[in-house]
Amino acid sequence: MRGGLMMGLMEVVTSLGPARLRVSGRSDTGRRRKRNEDFLFLRPKLGLFLVADGVAGRNAGKMASQLAAFSMNKFFEATRQGHWPDQGLPVSAQSASEPQERLDSAIRKANRDVYAAATTHPEHRNMSTTLVATYLDGAAGMLHIGHVGDSRAYAVRAGAIEQLTRDHTLRNKARAALPGCTAEQLAQIPGSVLTGALGVAEQVQVDLRSIAVMPGDIYLLCSDGLTKMVEDRRILDALLLRDAPGDMCDLLISLANGAGGRDNTTVAALRFDPV
């Protein structure tokens, strides 16, 4: 680890009031892909943790996921004192708190950076990435989540798992717009077609959510390489079966590859232990 920056593999322990945070992550190419276009970025000193997934079928997907991560890191570095430039756009949530606005602005800035690179450099044409990011406000004991695309965040509390994000896919859009659709009709809509990703357009809509952290909580960030291969029930079992976040991540990667490993798989586990 250099200066609090972690790309994965290493476990970090941080005190947080009545809880102690342990965080680790892993990224794996899988068994079908030749290269890994996911990017894992963990920055405990800034409270910033994210998973980005360069969209398959696009040029320079790896470049897009890395650029998004480094753009957000630069934004958080520059706004340590709580001041950030106006992005010229309304915040995604109408009643967003200041930490939510900071996360929202960082993701929007990342989108504009990826879009600029995709529209300026021919070799990066059409590149884009999904993103799920969390910002931990340790003083308030709050975890703020922002995402675009189908990379997910989960919470595990009291032995139950909850998906904290909603996939930005054509199927989910149809489900919301046409509540009368049957399961059979929805199944005919491709579930992997994205309706949102960073770099596709100059503006992006970010989904925001905040949750009060409790001792004993486990939070998981992951690319769709995990969720397309492993059911939520098995993800929960894996998170409860292991104590160390690094071991949780290893087991989840193993499960995804054991189920076929059709895509890159990236996971980050945040565990809040009682002090």
Structural account:
The protein has a single domain (12-166, 196-274), classed as 4-Layer Sandwich (Phosphatase 2c, domain 1), CATH 3.60.40. 30% of the residues lie in helices and 27% in strands. It has helices at residues 61-78, 98-120, 170-177, 183-187, 224-227, 232-241, 245-258, and strands at 12-16, 19-28, 38-43, 48-54, 129-137, 142-148, 152-157, 160-163, 207-212, 218-222, 265-274. Strands 1-2-11-10-7-8 form a six-stranded antiparallel beta sheet. Strand 3 and strand 4 (48-54) form a beta hairpin. Helix 1 (61-78) crosses helix 2 (98-120) and helix 6 packs antiparallel against helix 7. It is globular.
Uncertain segments of ≥5 residues (pLDDT<50)?
A: 1-6
CATH topology: Phosphatase 2c, domain 1
The helix fraction, in percent, is 25-40%
Number of domains: 1
Secondary structure layout:
Elements lengths: L11 E5 L2 E10 L9 E6 L4 E7 L6 H18 L19 H23 L8 E9 L4 E7 L3 E6 L2 E4 L6 H8 L5 H5 L19 E6 L5 E5 L1 H4 L4 H10 L3 H14 L6 E10 L1
Antiparallel strand pairs: 1-2, 2-11, 3-4, 4-5, 5-6, 6-9, 7-8, 7-10, 10-11
Helix pairs in contact: 1-2, 6-7
